[in-house]
Specification:
The protein has 353 residues and is α/β, with parallel strands linked by helices. It folds into 2 domains: 6-162, Beta Polymerase, domain 2 (2-Layer Sandwich); 228-352, no CATH class. The chain is 58% helix and 11% strand. It has helices at residues 6-39, 54-64, 87-100, 145-159, 167-206, 217-224, 230-238, 253-258, 264-286, 298-310, 314-326, 331-343, 347-352, and strands at residues 44-51, 78-84, 102-103, 109-110, 125-130, 137-144, 243-245, 293-295. The strands form 2 sheets. Strands 1, 2, 3, 4, 5 and 6 form a 6-stranded mixed beta sheet that branches. α4 (145-159) runs antiparallel to α5. It is elongated and about 100 Å long.
Length: 353
Amino acid sequence: MDVPDLHCQMILDEYREAIPMLNKMKEEVVALLRETLERNGIIVTAIEARVKTEESLTGKLALKGAKYATLGDITDILGARIITFYTDDVDRIASIAEKLFEIDWENSVDKRRLHQLDSFGYNSLHYICRLPGYDIRFELQLRTTLQHAWAAINHDIGYKSGIEIPREYMRRMNRLAGMLEMADDEFSRIRTEITDYRRRVQNLVQNGKLDDVLLDGDTFRSYLQVGPLDSLNKRIAALNQAEIQEVPLVRYLRVLKALKCNTLGDVDRLIKAYREDAYLLARHQLGNTDLDIISSAIGLQNVCIVCILSTGGGKIGLERMFDAINGHNSQNNALAELTFEQASNLPFMNKIL
């Protein structure tokens, strides 16, 4: 590499003096971005930042040194990058960046607007920013995970090889670029449609149209938000004036499906059909104890127990239920035996026998 001329050497001297300030600025930019994204509930793949090395800066000055009067004219001396999962998050983060930083619009560029097939990996949004309290500008790049992966691979295959890639291989690379761009758009579209689906489900649940909603993990969580088991759990807790400890109930999903629940309407009818006997079972379980903390799963678990026993599932059915909830282990057989014994003298068991 050629020895820098006097002008470039002066910029390098500026750079060396500015290193502590640039590192401090880098830490502040990353911390500010991370805190703001977390506060806005935006999950990203990575937040990266680097101060340009002296070697890299020397090379830049050797090629373009005449363009820069001072170090402050070099807009990428500090570079930050946010890598997102979805294309629409790029615009959300861009809006946030515009509020956090002073944007140099003249030198910023939205490469997504170029619409070139072979530029997919470089279709990121580049903002030239100024952090309040600092004179030096920095570059902020926003791109998706797929765009970032493509840029890295294309750089490795094309730029680092040091040779011109034959047209045959460029054509194949460009085809892949188009496929990745379609995948990027499709991921965002799917996320939007899933969000819309969840809103529709919540609306149906709120309006009591439970038979219109198929039972799955998402819909089951929406159903639980309306508190279908709250009154049963409170009645059970009142037996010992116990505190109710909240636990996830999604592990009962397999049990409910095994009990032929295909919609939320089926689950709702199951709870209503067996809640009184589930309460009686809890009364028998807790009557001679001093437990002052109970699980929020007790109501649903007892509903399932009563349903299994009422439909002839017996001890084997109970053991299968405990296997589904707790994972297969030797203790589930003993737990099924105990539960069957606790229920054996209750009225609903007499009807079966």
